[in-house]
Here is the input.
Amino acid sequence: QLQLVESGGGLVQPGGSLTLSCAASGSTLDYYGIGWFRQAPGKEREGVSCISSSGSSTNYADSVKGRFTISRDNAKNTFFLQMNSLKSEDTAVYYCNALRFGVNYWGQGTQVTVSS
Here is the structure.
């Protein structure tokens, strides 16, 4: 059973940067599509970014394009979300996700708060 654990959230000022990490255990991530989602208070969970199993294809929500970068290190069974130029509207709980054969696996979430 794949398990995912996020880290790296916290409080940052507008314009600042954070890097989220998602470490996997119980299975190798090599054949999983992976991604990041977020959920702000009072809003539905939304997709932020995803990356293919090979790492050759990435997608981003329009709201984060040019500011966020998703990456994966299959050797370390870990993937990342580099977030730059953070805005107050990026404040949310961020969840990592892995998908294979129609089965979704989720991390527990990490809070990102962008505030001065």
Remarks:
- The mean pLDDT is 95.
